[in-house]
Amino acid sequence: MKNSIQIPDFSRSPKVDQVGIIERASRFQTRSIKNESKIQALEMVLNMIDLTTLEGKDTIEKVNQMCYKAQHLHDDYPGLPTVAAVCVYSAMVATAKAAVKGSGVKVASVSTAFPSGQTPFSTKADDTKFALDQGADEIDMVISRGKYHQGEYNFVFDEIAKIKELCGNQARLKVILETGEIGTLDDVRRASDIAIYAGADFIKTSTGKIGSAASIPVTLTMLYAIKDYYLKTGTMIGMKPAGGISTSKLAIHYLVMVKEILGNAWLTNKWFRFGASSLANDVLLQLEKQRTGGYQSKDYISID
Amino acid sequence: MSERINILKTYKIYIGGSFPRTESGRFYNPMNAKKESLGNICLSSRKDFRNAVVAARKAFGDWSDRTAFNRSQILYRMAEVLEGRREQFIAELMQQDSSRKDAEKEVNLSIDRLVYFAGWCDKYQQIFSSVNPVASSHFNFSALEPTGVVAIVANKDSSLLGLVSYMAPIIAGGNSCVILASENKPLCSISFAEVLNASDLPGGVVNILTGKKSELLSQIGSHMDVNAVCYTDGIKDELIQLKEASIDNLKRIKSYMYDLTTVEVENPYIINDFQEVKTTWHPIEVIGAAKASY
């Protein structure tokens, strides 16, 4: 199907009206959400989280602990969903895979010399193959931002396409644009187009490793790229904002945005994810607040 | 030439070191005995209270980690700044039905009380900590740690002194706090927030809300992230309301009936009431069992 799609000239990607985007983005944050909808939204948020640990100090025990949390968010609260996936470095994929076995929680591995992407392609390919061999269900790759800024869009495109080929039918591919390094919203749009046409199943905002992470205007720009592609080809692409989304309120704003731009079809963890480590606990606090009526404390929820 | 129009002060609340309006957009209009309006005062909602607790929790770690000496310096600094603005506070107290003499006395006492508790910052630990006798060869000692976020329901009859007299010992002990100001005499509380803001006190250590006890008491009681409550109005029904609401986390609720104008409120036991005791065992060599090798 995709083979029949004409690859556009990326230097002519649509320009983004920054003022308009910011204006539109601010309007998602003024919705009044009624209690019933809020509970539904909060449970949906939990089910869309990619619970993440990407640190040099990660240990097998830490990953096991996180995988347990992924399946048992807060056992005091009956009927909670699991998170969508756990996201780890490739060295931890086997551990995570064993720990979440049978729960339906997916294992995502960051790849291609995450977070900088500054290695030869052969290294990136090996990194990806290793993660796939270990059983990764999803690959979160980074794009070469340096090459992008040198104007070598074809290089960036080819890298994504080759990694997609490696993933084959085994794993879904998320492409991290690292929007904080990519520059303006025009660039975000262009990089989104490159990733989508090169075969990304998901586009993802950030690595979480630099100061500037996901924001509503950036995500909105990427959603428009997804929408345009969908209108043109009928193919759905997923979206994953990552980093900096730590409160339930903000997460619900994201859901409102997805619903209004892309529609209900995207409101499942097949097409929308949150990359976050502390969001889950805040959502649990809010759910408990709705259930008990009193404001809650982190003292009563497992840290990780 | 036209007469100059007075610029009236907008009294806002104090959360996390800034002065927002209540998120609810509501206000109330308390009167003094002469039926003069004291102004449009923010009628804080439970969400304001929640935001204040979040700010207090965030500030708690840093504040409790400060050295006792530094906390003492900052409390003393508050006294200095308050001294410099005494005329403003006297004027506000007189607007809220105090005579000039009483107003001056209240401001003086408030300043003195800050200095008093500034002095205790690096002393209460020695008074209340202990080395405990145990049957094994261990040092066993109990030391104090601040309990966390404390909600203070400020005395209803006092605009400034009631607030200062309990805030000072609670933050001297390393806690952060959320204060609900006197409902009918709220003016000094917000002006006092300006003093706090100019005293190197980190934002969020003290948060001040204006509003109605009838709306907020049960919220204060039920909030799981509030570790203790300081209540000084002595109204039995309100105390019951607080205690019933706190049934889920059994937070510490302290009720005081001290006469604020006397020195009886100047005691370190108020600091102690908002501390937790941590007891540590540390092994030691049994000196008595050592032979005469030395």
What is the count of DSSP helices of chain B, taking H or I runs of 4+ residues? 10
Radius of gyration of chain A: 19 Å
- Counted beta strands of chain A: 8
Stretches of chain B where pLDDT is under 50 for at least 5 consecutive residues are none
CATH-level-4 superfamily name of chain B: Aldehyde Dehydrogenase, Chain A, domain 1
Question: What share of the residues of chain A lie within helices?
Answer: 40-55%
Content-based structural category of chain A: alpha/beta
Order of helices and strands of chain B: EEHHHHHEEEHEHEHEHEHE
Please tell me the CATH architecture of chain A by its name. Answer: Alpha-Beta Barrel
* General form of chain B: globular
Mean pLDDT of chain A: 94
What percentage of amino acids of chain A are in beta strands? 5-15%
Low-pLDDT ranges of chain A: none
Class inferred from helices and paired strands of chain B: alpha/beta
Question: What's the CATH class of chain A, please?
Answer: Alpha Beta
Indicate the CATH class of chain B: Alpha Beta
Note the overall shape of chain A. Answer: globular
- Using a beta-carbon cutoff below 8 angstroms, give the protein chain pair with the largest interface and the number of residues from each chain: A-B, 9 and 11 residues
What's the oligomerization state? heterodimer
According to CATH, the fold-level topology of chain A is TIM Barrel
